[in-house]
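Page 47, continued from p. 46.
Same chain as before, 334 aa.
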Amino acid sequence: MITTYFFIFIGLIIIMLGYIKLAERMNIIDRPVSRSSHIHPTVRGGGIIFPIAAAIWFIIFGWEQTYAVIGLLIISLVSFLDDLKSLSRSIRLAIHLFAISLLFYEFGLFQYHWYLILSALILTIGWINAFNFMDGINAITAFYSLVLLGTFSLLNNADKLLLPFFKSSFPDHWVSFFPGGLVGALFISVLIFTFFNARKRALAFAGDIGSISMAFMQSWMMISLMVATKQAYWIVLFSVYGIDTIITIIIRIKKGENIFESHRQHLYQLLVNEKKWSHLKVSLTYGSTQLIINLAVIYLVFTNKMNLAVCFYIIVLMTISYILIRRRIILTLT
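Result:
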């Protein structure tokens, strides 16, 4: 297994270096505009190694979960084409719906009541778009993805990693809910991307192919976890990005703005562009905050203290904290 991961690591590094050279030659470059949080032209689409890592896993580890992988490859291809030349919103939405439908079919979600299917669809589309919106500064996608992949890996291997700490309250019949090899391959790909992106002047941005494919795979993991445990409170694992996105959308709607147009009103953008925090500091703050929350959720779950009411209280507390922090920052700018 270690040897396999080593060769995946070497292969992905070669692919990443090759892509950067190709992107420079083909002018696949993200050039700063007035609403950008960066000032230098940078290669776009470096997140292409995320779906490539998943494809490598699919081939090497036994051709598992075919429909989900097909959905991933379809949504990744369209996202890459969008990186090359902007596609219409209707085309992107149609492809996203088709890819998500394949993911749902993989897990038999269409057998549930229509309102559960609709809720899952709205949340999945929302998460994919939220993750894409939040990919605006160096390292934020890398750090946040490492936290989520680490969380899912910890839960996926709870019977080995968490049982020693929660022997008296460990849930009965806990089983792995996701292919471990895929988490490992993705973690490697994000580590490699982090080297090229988590720096003062990034060498590559994830692009739509990176942020959307990663969000799709995180949705894949989240659905797997919820189906396996039959619990919805795991949504808190996505709460930092989720709250920032939802509150920002509400604020923009109140201002009468087009929520589909680019902007600089997310909290992370205010911290970088107005408060002049470094990209890495802001990204580390977001990743660390989500890590603390995820560890708290894991503790509550494995001590039998987690339920939907507790989930609600956590989200309310986080939302209030977010609003107060945002308001304080706005006040310092006026």
